[in-house]
Automatic annotation (TrEMBL):
Pfam families in UniProt: Glyco_trans_2_3
Gene Ontology CC: membrane
Cellular localization per UniProt: Membrane
Transmembrane stretches, start-end: 45-64, 70-93, 399-417, 437-455, 467-491
GO molecular function: aspartic-type endopeptidase activity; glycosyltransferase activity
Domain of life: Eukaryota
InterPro entries in UniProt: Aspartic_peptidase_AS (IPR001969), Glyco_trans_2-like (IPR001173), Glycosyltr_2/OpgH_subfam (IPR050321), Nucleotide-diphossugar_trans (IPR029044)
Alphabetical UniProt keywords: Glycosyltransferase, Membrane, Transferase, Transmembrane, Transmembrane helix
The protein's name: Glycosyltransferase family 2 protein
GO biological process, any: proteolysis
């Protein structure tokens, strides 16, 4: 993670005179803890001030623009929205083939009595890592560890379940109980990582160990891997020796806890079952997403995780892609995870993701114009299609935050200057200011409906059709919220905000 500089006032040496006192005493006007408090306050609230000022300034600017300028802005925003909607629906249609192939493979395995192609003695050796920040996940780590040790269907002489955790203070009797798992389960390994302050530190420590594995699977502590997930992933590696990373599908299983978790569950189905496999098919590259991902051990040990990145997973995925590594998305490699149940927890999680994506985009954008992958791997050149995919993923996605929020500010200026007196006037004001808007809006709406229809076809068992309908109705508000979070992430990156807020687990 990037470091933020403390806000300090250097007073220097202040002479304090008194009867008989002829020495200068060093004294600070502000105590150290007070300076730290002021620094933390400024670091925390400066991004809010930047984003708030952005909205206020933009709205006021549109209030004083001429009708001609407003028409130009409106056309740009609607065209951009059309492009994003079109790209999204293309990815959705491209995901249909991977979804059908995944279902066909499951059907074939079921017809064979769940007999997999590779004999047990020929399977690859797998290290499965469960990475935990113990104070935050102390209530769930034992449950997830026992589940992995007892439920995962993989030969025990070919798999090792590794519980990697860090904690700033001892937590007993939990830590003792964790280490006692190795006495009961021969394929268990429990490691308390010394001097670790992050997930990246935990992983990098493990990569220094010579475990003799062929593959490494990474899971966050809140995940329940499907019992057959490791087997499906390993079969992909065996079937295609060129594959370096297999990213599975993550499913939210607490969708009925709150309205928020139900919407996140739909979003995850849209991302992992539609967008990721569709983008991989359309642009020619996939991404490791942080959890439920399987790597060839040699590649992961060479790349490691960059602890200076807030989203070290995306950074490692892009570094792997930059050198020509092949990543595939397999919908049968399924894992079930928890979504944040409260808006504050959701807000903290998404802000961390937004800032991390901003970091990764700035670092790896050079892949758009540099087609040579890596000096150490000069035989692979990035195709034009892949470079345009990187452009869409890194630049256009980040720029869309400004386009969506600028459109929002434009509509707000309309509401302030000429507030509608009826619902019909509001409808025309928001969507049909100009004739071209009708076509762009209708086409974008059709693209959205098509995308959500495809999502409905591949939805998980924890998502209902009602949830998808509600998600589609509130989708415009979701876009504005996501764009605002993206801007907030940019503002945090500008001020080099570096506090790491782990997602609350229950």
């Amino acid at each position: 993670m990037s470091e933020s500089k403390d806000f300090k006032i250097d007073i220097g040496e202040l002479p304090i005179s008194g009867p008989g006192d002829k020495t200068a005493l060093k004294k600070s006007w502000i105590p150290e803890n007070a300076r730290e408090t002021v620094s933390a306050f400024i670091s925390e609230w400066t991004p809010f001030g930047l984003v708030a000022s952005y909205f206020v300034f933009s709205t006021c600017l549109y209030m004083y623009c001429s009708d001609g300028m407003i028409a130009i802005f409106w056309f740009i925003y609607m065209c951009t929205n059309f492009y994003i909607a079109g790209a999204t629906v293309l990815e959705a249609f491209m995901s249909i083939t991977p979804c059908r192939e995944a279902r066909t493979i499951v059907t074939q395995a079921e017809d064979r009595g769940w007999c997999f192609p590779t004999p047990h003695d020929q399977l690859l050796v797998l290290d499965l890592l469960i990475v935990a920040y113990l104070p935050n996940e102390q209530d769930i780590i034992m449950d997830r560890a026992l589940y992995a040790l007892e439920q995962i269907d993989y030969p025990r002489d070919k798999i090792r379940i590794n519980i990697l955790y860090n904690t700033p203070h001892t937590i007993e009797p939990l830590e003792t109980e964790l280490h006692q798992l190795t006495e009961k389960y021969s394929h268990a390994r429990v490691i308390k990582v010394p001097n670790s302050t992050s997930k990246a530190d935990n992983l990098n420590y493990f990569f220094t160990l010579d475990t003799g594995s062929d593959l490494i699977a990474i899971y966050d502590c809140d995940h329940y891997p499907h019992p057959n997930s490791p087997r499906w992933a390993v079969e992909r590696f065996i079937a295609d020796p060129e594959i370096d990373i297999v990213q599975g599908r993550c499913v939210v299983f607490n969708s009925e806890d709150t309205f928020l978790t139900s919407m996140i569950a739909v979003e995850f189905d849209k991302i992992y079952a539609v967008s990721h496999p569709g983008r991989a098919a359309m642009w020619g590259f996939g991404l490791f997403c942080g959890s439920n991902g399987y790597w060839r051990t040699s590649l992961l040990r060479e790349l490691k995780m960059d602890g200076d990145m807030l989203t070290e997973d995306i950074d490692s995925a892009l570094r792997a892609f930059s050198r020509g590594s092949k990543t595939v998305h397999d919908l049968n490699v399924t894992s079930y995870e928890l979504a944040p149940t409260t808006f504050p927890a959701f807000w903290k999680q998404r802000l961390r993701w937004a800032q991390g994506w901003a970091q990764a985009s700035a670092k790896h954008f050079k892949m758009v114009y540099n087609n040579v992958q890596d000096p150490l791997h000069p035989n692979y050149n990035r195709s034009f299609t892949a470079r345009f995919g990187v452009l869409s993923l890194l630049l256009i996605r980040e720029a869309s935050y400004y386009l969506v929020t600028q459109y929002t500010c434009l509509v707000l200026s309309f509401l302030i200057v000429k507030f509608p007196s009826s619902g019909e006037e509001l409808w025309k004001l928001v969507y049909f200011q100009y004739p071209v808007s009708q076509w762009l809006f209708v086409i974008s709406l059709v693209c959205l409906i098509a995308t959500l229809w495809i999502t409905n076809q591949v939805k998980s068992e924890f998502v209902s059709r009602k949830m998808i309908i509600i998600f589609s109705i509130q989708y415009p508000f979701y876009l504005v919220l996501s764009a605002t979070i993206g801007l907030y992430g940019h503002a945090r990156q500008i001020v080099r905000y570096s506090s790491w807020n782990p997602t609350a687990r229950k």
